[in-house]
Amino acid sequence: MKWPFFLLTFIFAAHTAIGQKRLPAFGKIDIADLELKDCAFDPGADACKLIDWGNLYFTRSMDETASFTTIYERRVRIKIFNQAGLSYANLKIPFYSYNNDEKIIKMDACTYNITEGHAIKKTTVYNNAVYTRKIDKQYSELTLLFPEVKVGSVIEYKYVLQRKTIADVKDWYFQSSIPTRYSEYQVSIPSIFRFTIQPLTADSLEIKETKGFDRLIVKSTSTPAARKNFIMRNLPAVRDEPYMGAVRDYLQRLSLQLSGIDYGNGNVVNIRSDWDEVVKELMEDNDFGGQVNRIFSETTAMTATAQSLPSMESRIDFVYNFVKKNMQWDGRETIYSYDGIKKAFRNKRGSNADINLLLLSLLNQAGIPAVPILFSTRDNGLVNTTLPFLNQFNTVMVLVEDSNKYFILDATDNSAYNLVPARVVNTKGFVVSTDSWKWLDAVDNLHTYKLITAMQGDIDTAGIMKGDVLITSSGYARKQYYEDWVENRSSAAYLAEDYKGFQVNGVEINNLQNDTLPLEQKLHFAVPVENSGQHYYFKLNLFSGLEENQFMAAVRHTDIDFSYQQEYTIYGSYTIPADYLFEELPQNVSLIMPDTSIVFKRFISADNNSLNVRMSIDFKRSLYTAGEYPEFSAFYKILLSKLNEQVVIKKNNQP
Description:
By secondary structure, this protein is mainly beta. Helices cover 14% and strands 41% of the residues. The chain is built from 9 helices and 37 strands. Strands 1-13-14-11-2-3-9-5-6 form a 9-stranded mixed beta sheet. Helix 4 packs antiparallel against helix 5 and helix 5 packs antiparallel against helix 7 (352-365). It is globular, with a radius of gyration of 30 Å.
């Protein structure tokens, strides 16, 4: 975490937390809230935030490394409606503990219940139920277990978080995964600080402003501090929906960023006022720009070999795979190499920034011009390109441009060098270059999620189908199937775990280590065919991942983001016993969505006791807006019904 150092001395005086005059005090609750059975404005919710109150202000720092400290006060009161809501009684608060940059300096919590005598019982959470653990070198987590929690309880907690930095101010989220009845954020900003405050809201936002509430003494001069209160009410939950983007993109929130400091007499210092300043700061930072051109004597032979290869792409592939094979990602996501890429290389382990800045340095040593590119990954949320805020980004990758092509490289990813990393495909990246920074659309027009399944099955008179299925995955599908294999290889039967009675008798795998080739997984199987009386029936849609309809909801609030285009092809060849016949077969069909973005085709033929089928599904778009959902879901329902039609066979009783 980075912050500027300022040479100011001050006394921050007369600060009093307000805003709670209109709210019940901590520890006091109206019995009507304990008697609530449901959320009036979002029925069926597991729980509801009755109060979500925050307060941000500045105080004097006693730390030698920073002149200012930001203080966050947070208070939350939650009503639990059902069993699922009990999970909110297991509270976890992560904070950035590296160099004690953040500290939770005070914590209070309690549980409220109604007794049999219809009285309010308050149970305090004591210190022995609160503990802190380190997650990694950068982050720690405070954990708290509320006592005597049951359906109908109300839990409440408040804490004070102290931060060394004033430049990187946390966003305030009015919404969350449960509904919020009242949310207020109080911000007290001394007039010497210039903050950009951007409300990202759609519903009614109430703003109250008071000037001169606090005083800041700078060089014996009293400077007023303006206080603003931002209030929203009755906000429904933002719930997880299949294939939605980052939850953050749909949460109504308040974004704050320090843009300058006014020292008086026209002396104003801009803080990251534009993207040029962002680039300058990054490249002068030892944990970022200082790592780009590090030289490694241990890799001289490797980079010399890379330079001898005949093409740019072969050199990129060589260096990229060298880093992938020699470095292990420790799971940390950041844009800074805090311990340095040399130390990470010696340890053969590091954060994504350690690994990718190492890759960047080695590419440059191998004569391949490369620059850093910053991203906010898909699960972190979209970047606002108009706001020069570094805290929008959570990862750094490497960009190599070659004539009319470019390569975005992430050595922590399980994909080929020529595939835009799945976590950032179809998002925007910020190219950090002192010569000409720019925004780059991370588009991959060459690769899709491509899956081919080919099944050969023979059904015997006992109703058992035996045979082989070959699953071929390429493009973005290869990454998914490779990672699943690595995670589950000790039990190869995971490939068929979703199919009742499916017995895997052996697995063959090809191209596991060559990430530029399709991954091939061949299963030898046996499975009982479903039966009803004298009829047997089976589906032709197996191992595609499209067996269940995930878009059954009548209403959708978020966009559908598949990340990439998709191609599915299903081949099938089946034989049935000689004394059986096909009684019912799916028909040849061609379905096209009105905007032509989805195409489904099925060709099927039967000859005596053999059946051959070919089905293809092409998704030519990766994004559908929430407004397009009714048309999309209606078509998808028809698509899945056709895809899952069954073949029916019966014994031929003719003489």
